[in-house]
Design goal:
The complex is a heterodimer of chains A (154) and B (872).
Chain A lengths: L9 E9 L2 E6 L3 E5 L14 E7 L2 E7 H4 L12 E7 L2 E7 L1 E9 L12 H4 L2 E6 L4 E5 L1 H5 L2 H6 L1
Parallel strand pairs in A: 2-10, 5-7
Antiparallel strand pairs in A: 1-2, 1-8, 3-6, 4-5, 6-7, 9-10
Chain B lengths: L1 H27 L4 H21 L2 H18 L6 H24 L8 H16 L30 H11 L5 H22 L5 H27 L6 H21 L1 E3 L1 H4 L2 H12 L3 E6 L4 E3 H22 L3 H6 L6 E10 L2 E8 L6 H10 L5 H6 L2 H5 L23 H10 L3 E7 L3 E9 L4 E9 L2 E6 L3 E6 L8 E4 L2 E6 L2 E7 H4 L13 E7 L2 E7 L1 E9 L13 E6 L5 E5 L1 H10 L1 H5 L4 H6 L10 E7 L6 E4 L5 E6 L3 E4 L2 E6 L2 E7 L11 E9 L2 E6 L2 E8 L5 E2 L5 E7 L2 E6 L1 H8 L16 E5 L3 H13 L3 E5 L2 H9 L6 E5 L7 H10 L8 E5 L4 H10 L3 E4 L3 H17 L1
Parallel strand pairs in B: 2-4, 9-18, 13-15, 20-30, 24-26, 31-32, 31-33, 33-34, 34-35
Antiparallel strand pairs in B: 1-3, 4-5, 5-7, 6-7, 8-9, 8-16, 10-14, 11-12, 12-13, 14-15, 17-18, 19-20, 19-27, 21-25, 22-23, 23-24, 25-26, 28-29, 29-30
Helix pairs in contact in B: 1-2, 1-4, 1-11, 2-3, 3-4, 3-5, 4-5, 8-9, 11-12, 12-17, 25-26
Classes of the chains: A mainly beta (154), B alpha+beta (872).
Chain lengths: 154, 872
């Protein structure tokens, strides 16, 4: 699943916490990081869609990552954040619990998913990094945006 | 070179489309030299450009076609065969062009065969040219000319050419003719060149997007401006608003194209079909200049073509059949287009045999769309609508005699996609008429902003026909039939859906009292959508839904409001569909399949809604639902005996209870169902044992009643049912029921609302009523003046400024001149408030100027005025 790519040695990741797990998103996919405000819930929408909001004149669909990955959301004390991403010409944002620092990680250090990884996570992960304190799961943004009904059909 | 080639392809394609339809016209009207000149010139231009761009195949084809057409110009009578041949040539040219467009070069291949035919045909015309009369005389001497290369296909030897020239131009030398031809051409192209330029669609689309953003920003500013009453920004903001509106209109105009562009290919198609089918068909096209958005135009092109093809193919009978039926041999297909209230109406009709209802019925049954029993109950119009049912025509091959409706489901889907509607009317033996209504543009629409279940939503104004306030002192009330809310509106019973509930948002059961019902028309179905609040109308920029949300049929898109929030746009189609499976099911008494059939149509027709109940015996009794004001269930303990009569306190009044006969017992405890009949301020209740059902049936009283209060008996749902005569019971409650009614109205402020748009009249009336005013609506200034002069005591006039015949300004000026009315305050409603308008308004004596969508502003202004009136 994870192809070792020798052309590039270092990848940069925007890190985010969701449900107590640390995730990394390839920095090239990240458009914005913002606090979701004036969110409009969409009735009858798939549960993973937290709502839609206006980000500088564009309508952005906010995907609740915790719900998407069926993770327990951690304490909702802090202001949740959103990471804006574009996919197939549409604007999305991923709702996360908190945003972390940007990490530069050597591609060679990336390991493939452990075989016993929770299948719900394994489906959206393109590898794992062993950091000093914890594990970082590299998120495949496109797969996160494939909501379950589609994933089943695919 | 590439650009040149591309431009050539575009231009030539356009020219060819014109040639196509012109040729068909020419065939019917061979004497018309103008048409021929036009065609000739177009083909000539194509030929010339081809030579320049080194496209030998095209050049040869165009040349051969031009030669043949030259013969017509010389006076040869165009035969159908010749026209067909030219049309075939044009088709060939088109296919070559297509390939040039793709590959930048001419495809390999040979047109020799076609060119040979063309040459042969030309030769045939030259040899048999009786029309050239004495012109057999050749003027001048014929010098043999030699060409230094062999003739290319399609070319004629110079000798032949020279001979043809001389033979043709009687009394005119070939040179002069050629010379006189040139300037005309130049003149034309130079004029067109200076007046129009070619702009890529992308540029326009981009411009449109930018304007949409500008409209959004403008709306945001207006929203902010609304919050600050007195602000120095007000005037520049209004100016900005006006300019933005004009800019928007201007950009929209650049996207507008005459609908005739979508029709251009039709004459050719009809001509080919009439040859193929051996039918004579006249195609009438009216209103081809009606303009609509490019995007919409593209989307309806194919459905229209398909429908015309259908009419020619299946709708019109053969000449023999038509003769036998006493119809003119020539069949007629008529296309017409016109604007109507912000939308375009396109009608496609023919005078053929009409839809075959029996066949459609069979098919609907065969496809499981309805059972045989259900189809029996449907009216003919409802059965005809099956042709729009999904998958209706795809299942089996329809033969010519089977009637029409081939692929109509596909047409409907296309039209649905652009928020349009389609309806069909058919009379057997007389013809079919399809009516399509589509919005002028898809990008920006006027929408009504409402609230339901705590969220705001936009409803496209196009589908809103009325706004009704229920409860809270209004005449309208929601009633329930087995938990299904319905609204009685004038003589109709409308199914009502609660917006919040429909969207699964109804956590807090919103009160029905004081709610608004947005009456929506979709196709032939009219229904009410109950919302908690109505805010204002706003021009919204429709943005497509995210692909993750596209499955929700109740929404057609989303938009950003003036205050920056994103809201969803309600799709009336989706609501109608979901009503079909919810409310209509219950209204039509649980027959799921029937409800399916009735999805787009509440079963009505000649049938009457009947309320079935039991009282005094187990035999069902029925009363037309339209006579019943309300169905109530009261606590039996609240029934009081007063003056020997049973009474109940009802809405602050005493309401007498009446029993059908002595067998009916008024309950001592528990719930007592009542049928309430009312008329103005009075109400009476008929005591019943049980309210059983509501059915749609044809009321056919078979046995006359003998008992008092019974009209007779009818078979309803297979059971003999007594039909009750309400008129018998009313006087039992009030002796003077039918005598004079006096409404002692307390003095409220009377408003005369003048607006030519029924939408605004209907929207503002309940709003003003809710604010405690008595409202009289007038549809125009003249009507308003009549009402005012008739001495109706109005306190304030609220008028639209922009009305046909007589504007609001004129109305105000007229009132000022009338000594009796000059004191009457007039508030103007303007869709656009400009400096000039304000100035003119001051002169005309307007008390205030309020933006048309500014509901709060209007009420505030009214209040201010009436307070002043009281103080004075």
């Amino acid at each position: 699943m994870s192809e070792r790519d020798d052309n590039r040695h270092v990848n940069e990741y925007v890190t985010a916490m969701v449900g107590g797990q640390l995730f990394g998103l390839p920095i090239l996919r990240v458009q914005d990081v913002f606090i979701p405000e004036r969110l409009t819930r969409v009735p009858l929408s798939p549960p993973e869609v937290a709502g839609v909001l206006n980000l500088r004149g564009r309508i952005v669909t906010l995907i609740d990552v915790a719900r998407r990955l069926e993770l327990e959301r951690t304490i909702v004390e802090a202001q949740p954040m959103a990471i804006g991403v574009d996919a197939h010409g549409e604007s999305y944002a991923l709702l996360i619990d908190s945003i972390g620092e940007v990490l530069k990680l050597d591609d060679k250090a990336r390991e493939s998913n452990p075989v016993n990884m929770d299948p719900r996570l394994a489906r959206v992960s393109s590898g794992v990094y062993r950091l000093d304190a914890e594990l970082l799961v590299v998120l495949d943004v496109d797969r996160v945006l494939e909501l379950p009904s589609r994933a089943v059909a695919a | 070179m590439d650009d040149l080639l591309r431009e050539f392809v575009t231009e030539t394609n356009e020219s060819l489309d014109v040639v196509d339809s012109e040729l068909v016209r020419f065939e019917q009207d061979p004497g018309n030299a103008k048409i021929l000149d036009n065609i000739f010139r177009l083909v000539h231009t194509i030929k010339g450009t081809c030579g320049f761009l080194a496209l030998p195949r095209l050049e040869a084809l165009a040349h051969a076609a031009e030669t043949l057409m030259g013969k017509f110009r010389d006076g040869a009578k165009p035969s159908a065969a010749a026209v067909t041949l030219i049309l075939t040539t044009i088709d060939r040219i088109k296919s070559i062009l297509e390939s040039i467009d793709k590959n930048q070069t001419e495809p390999a291949g040979s047109d020799d065969e076609l060119i040979a035919k063309l040459t042969e045909m030309s030769a045939a015309f030259s040899s048999a040219r009786p029309l050239a009369s004495p012109a057999e005389v050749t003027v001048g001497t014929l010098v043999p000319q030699v060409l230094e290369r062999p003739l290319r296909p399609g070319e004629v030897s110079l000798d032949d050419l020279e001979r043809a020239f001389r033979a043709t131009e009687v009394g005119q030398t070939g040179k002069r003719k050629a010379a006189s031809e040139k300037p005309v051409e130049d003149d034309d192209s130079s004029r067109a060149g200076s007046l129009s330029i070619r702009v890529t669609v992308d540029t326009l689309e981009h411009l449109m997007t930018m304007v949409s953003e500008l409209v959004l920003t403008r709306n945001q500013l207006l929203e902010i401006g609304r919050r600050h009453e007195e602000s120095e920004f007000k005037t520049p903001l209004q100016r900005l608003s006006t300019v933005t509106a004009e800019l928007q209109e201007g950009v929209m105009k650049t996207r507008m194209q005459p609908i005739g562009n979508a029709w251009q290919k039709l004459p050719r198609i009809v001509r080919d079909l009439s040859n193929e089918l051996g039918k004579q068909i006249d195609l009438e096209m009216l209103g081809a200049e009606t303009e609509l958005d490019r995007q919409v135009l593209d989307l309806i092109k194919d459905p229209l073509t398909h429908m015309v093809r259908n009419s020619a193919d299946h709708g019109l009978e053969s000449p023999e059949e038509r003769r036998a039926l006493g119809k003119p041999e020539r069949g007629r297909i008529r296309l017409s287009a016109y604007h109507e209230g912000g939308q375009i109406v396109i009608e496609i009709s023919d005078d053929g045999r009409g839809l075959n209802v029996e066949r459609i019925k069979e098919k609907a049954i065969a496809q499981g769309l309805a059972t045989e029993a259900e189809t029996e109950k449907l009216s003919e119009a409802q059965i005809q609508k099956f042709i729009f049912a999904p998958g209706f025509s795809t299942a089996a091959q329809i033969t010519n005699i089977s009637g029409r409706g081939v692929g109509m489901d596909v047409v409907r889907t296309n039209i649905d996609q652009i928020g349009g509607m389609i309806d069909v009317k058919s009379v057997a033996g007389v013809g079919v008429s399809f009516t399509i209504k589509i919005p002028l543009t898809l990008a920006i629409v006027a929408a009504l902003i409402v609230e339901g279940g705590g969220h705001r939503f936009a409803i496209p104004q196009l589908s809103v026909i009325e706004l009704v306030r229920v409860g809270g002192g209004s005449d309208h009330r929601i009633e329930h039939i087995k938990d299904t809310p319905v609204l009685r509106l004038r003589d109709k019973l409308l199914p009502v859906a609660k917006l919040g509930k429909l969207l699964g948002l109804d956590g807090t059961a919103s009160a029905e009292d004081g709610a608004f019902i947005v009456v929506i028309e979709f196709g032939s179905q009219i229904f009410g959508l109950m919302v908690d609040a109505v805010f204002h109308t706003e021009e919204i920029v429709v943005k497509p839904l995210s692909s993750k949300l596209r499955g929700i049929s109740l929404f057609s898109g989303n938009t950003i409001l003036g205050d920056g929030a994103v809201i969803m746009i309600i799709d009336p189609n989706g609501v109608a569909q979901s009503l079909g499976s919810r409310v209509v099911t219950q209204l039509a008494a649980q027959e799921a399949a029937l409800a399916d059939a009735a999805k787009r149509d509440v079963p009505a027709g000649e049938a009457t809604s009947l309320l079935i109940f039991r009282a005094g015996s187990s035999n069902p009794k029925a009363v037309p639902l339209s006579l019943v004001t309300r169905l109530e269930e009261i606590d039996a303990r609240t029934i009081e005996l007063s003056n020997g009569r049973h009474m109940v306190q009802y809405r602050g009044q005493l309401m007498p209870l009446v029993t059908m006969d002595e067998n009916v017992r008024i309950k001592g405890e528990g719930a007592q169902p009542l049928l309430v009949f009312s008329d103005g301020s009075r109400a009476m209740a008929l005591v019943v044992d049980e309210i059983a059902d509501i059915v749609e049936e044809r009321l056919d009283v078979q046995v006359q009643g003998e008992l008092p209060g019974v009209l007779g008996s009818a078979i309803i749902k297979g059971q003999a049912t007594e039909i009750i005569d309400v008129g018998h019971f009313l006087p039992l409650a009030f002796e003077d029921w039918f005598r004079g009614k006096s409404h002692a109205q307390q003095r409220t402020r009377n408003i005369l609302l003048v607006d030519d748009s029924p939408f605004f009249r209907n929207m503002l009336t309940p709003v003003l009523q809710a604010a405690g005013y008595a409202v009289t609506a007038a549809a125009g200034a003249q009507e308003a003046l009549r009402l005012l002069k008739a001495g109706e005591g109005f306190d304030v006039v609220v008028t639209d400024t922009d009305m046909p015949d007589m504007s609001g300004f004129d109305l105000a000026e007229t009132l000022q001149r009338d000594p009796a009315l000059s004191e009457l305050p007039v508030i103007a409603l303007a869709s656009m408030v400009s400096e000039e308008a304000l100035e003119r308004g001051r002169k005309a004596g307007f008390y205030d100027f309020v933006a048309k969508f500014d509901r709060q502003g209007l009420i505030a202004s009214l209040k201010e005025q009436t307070d002043m009136g009281r103080a004075a």
